[in-house]
Design goal:
It is a single chain. The chain is of the alpha/beta class. Helix content is 41%, strand content 12%. The protein has 12 helices and 10 strands. Strands 6-5-4-3-2-1-10-7 form an 8-stranded parallel β-sheet. Strands 8-9 form a two-stranded antiparallel sheet. Strand 4, helix 6 and strand 5 form a beta-alpha-beta unit. The radius of gyration is 18 Å and the shape is globular. The N terminus is likely disordered.
Length: 319
């Protein structure tokens, strides 16, 4: 495993990857709604994965990040039977898994102290799968904030972050036994969103066991500077999500199950927003995760064209 103070030398151009959520737009599947798409994909995992893998090949992307259903580990197991079979199918197409994302809705709640054994068991199950498919990064997030103005108020303070750091250490150590790095994603409206949140959490966690997965879009949506964050924490970036933002979120959103959909209008395809990808690329090239450029496009209606455009933007930024 790469240590926290060692940089991987990139002798060749990075590989391009994407999150499976890129393929979740119902128009891509000829369906009328997100709900109709999810229902169909859950019932037809083989057909779902066949089309996704074909689209990845067409787009020129060779790496994938598994995510929440229907592009999750359980869907893979239903479609392919086991991890080795999935790995062989990917290899035959020149593809591989680079990471998996733990959605907060699909894992035990980190805010409940009694959940620690279940949290660790869930992470270890995912890490064991990643090892079998040849991947090394498990991406997690911290719990969401409460809607502004909620009573009693919920504060993201030192005491809260210390509890999160304690859990992260236990989980990070557990997955490290599988050769997997635990990296935290900077999700909008979560408790790891603002630059200050990231700095505080990184300061409280051990770099041997806790890594960072910065998302350029989400950091910008919180009014932060993705390039500055990447520079400040470069030695701890195991993977990054390359995504663009239209502008910082300028309203107080209600934080419930609909918040993710209401954040989407603020997101953009690479090169169409405010993120400085030249500066971002320069900083990424100095990180342990430099070998992978993961382009994330939440629910693209034409994912192949969007990925190809994103690759072009990233290549120009890296040149």
């Amino acid at each position: 495993m790469t240590g926290p103070n060692r940089l991987e030398t990139r002798a060749a151009p990075p590989r391009f990857a994407t999150d499976i959520v890129t393929f979740y737009h119902p128009e891509f599947w000829g369906l009328e709604s997100a709900g109709a798409f999810r229902d169909w994909a859950v019932k037809n995992p083989e057909r779902f994965w066949e089309r996704v893998l074909n689209a990845l090949t067409e787009a020129g992307v060779t790496g994938i990040e598994l995510t929440f259903a229907p592009g999750d580990i359980d869907s893979v197991l239903r479609a392919f039977g086991d991890a080795p079979s999935f790995r062989r199918e990917l290899a035959a197409r020149g593809l591989s898994v680079v990471s998996a994302f733990i959605a907060s809705s699909e894992c035990p709640d980190w805010r409940q102290g009694t959940n620690l054994p279940a949290i660790v068991a869930d992470a270890e199950r995912r890490a064991a799968f990643l090892t079998e498919v040849g991947a090394e990064v498990l991406v997690a997030g911290l719990p969401m904030r409460a809607t502004f103005g909620t009573r009693p108020p919920f504060f993201v303070d030192a005491a809260y972050m210390t509890r999160m750091a304690d859990i992260a250490h236990v989980v990070g150590e557990a997955v490290a036994q599988h050769g997997v790095r635990l990296a935290f994603h900077t999700e909008s409206n979560s408790t790891l969103w603002y630059e200050r949140d990231i700095d505080l959490f990184m300061a409280l966690t051990d770099p041997r066991y806790v890594w960072l997965c910065p998302d350029s879009c989400h950091i910008a949506l919180g009014g932060g500077d993705p390039v500055t964050v990447a520079r400040r924490h470069s030695q701890r970036i195991a993977l990054a999500h390359w995504k663009d933002a239209v502008k910082p979120i300028d309203v107080e959103l209600t934080i419930d199950e609909t918040v993710f959909a209401r954040q989407q209008p603020y997101m953009a395809e690479l090169g169409r927003g405010i993120v400085d990808f030249k500066g971002w690329a320069d900083e990424m090239s100095r990180t342990p995760g430099a070998a992978i450029v993961l382009i994330e496009l939440d629910e693209a209606s034409d994912p192949v064209a969007a990925l190809q455009s994103g690759i072009t933007v990233a290549q120009e930024a890296l040149a």
